[in-house]
Write a structure and sequence with these properties.
The protein is an alpha/beta fold and 338 residues long. It has one domain: 3-Layer(aba) Sandwich (Rossmann fold), CATH 3.40.50.1820. Helix content is 39%, strand content 16%. The protein contains 12 helices and 12 strands. Helix 2 packs across helix 3 and helix 5 crosses helix 12. The chain starts with a strand and ends with a strand.
Length: 338
Amino acid sequence: MTEAVSKHAPREIAGRADPSLASQTAPRERSTRVDSRPAGGAPAPAGRLKASRRKILQISARLAPRITAHFLARRYLSSAVHVDVAAWTARAGVSAVAVDSETTVLQFRPDAPCGTRVLLSHGHDGSVRQFARLVRALLRAGVEVDALVLPGHLRPEQQVCSLSTIVGAIQRCNAALGPYDGIVGHCISANALLHALSEGLVCPRLVFISAPVEFSKLIRLAGRQYGIGGRCLDYFVEEVSQLGAPYTIDRPWRRMAAERPETLLVVHARHDYAAPVQDVLELETLWPDAHAEIFEQGDHNSILNMNAPTRSIAEFLTAGRAMPGAGPLSHDAGTRAH
């Protein structure tokens, strides 16, 4: 394991991205979520309505825990973010390929390809835009980048994007557009990658970012954030697990990891609120050819917007090739300590 320790004033802080990157690389995805507070910060009618709904939800969780859990599980797995593919493909060097009616791949092509091809897969409530910094770093190195737009993220109408949905999307993408020299999975896409590998997917290099290897912990966290507990929370975990069948939370991920021959880089923030760092350290010990880099700064999502993790991933995927324009590592958000 390698730790990343900050020794210089960082250019990013947890939860904040470099605004210049987003403006240069990624059009904004659209969300169906509505801000319930006005600009001045005073409570709005929508805010009071939200509080009332939460109270109703808590009452429902006590009186009808299974029905409430059934509803919340589908809500949890249905993203409010969708990608405007036309806005992305209006940019030079970006095209889109439909794998099927529900799955699209955005393709980013460098000016001088080096022959390496990489697939990126975001989490169930994530987006391609989260990979903007990594895409730029890979393109500078000549890597051809394919970024999955998972089912449920192409249109405003929300639909379930479960673990089985992501496993299937990765498998279909690889069959249609692969093979790839490296695949990167953020959040539960890392879990999905492990299942896809166990079913025959072939890729020599893998990157797991913010991987919730103990998926049940992430589900329980989501349930508590909804304000539920007790039997309703237990039913919620069960419902989310079953929506991902056959890749339920009781699948033996430790045994699967111990049997993998691929080279794995695990990138994780020490203070990841959604995926405890001790779980990925166990993954590192189980996977025969795995290496974990733990970063002191960033969290579950903001780690994707930081220089040092991005550079580690890009160098790993390009087998140590120098990263043009990256600058000295000591100026990044963290410095590796061996």
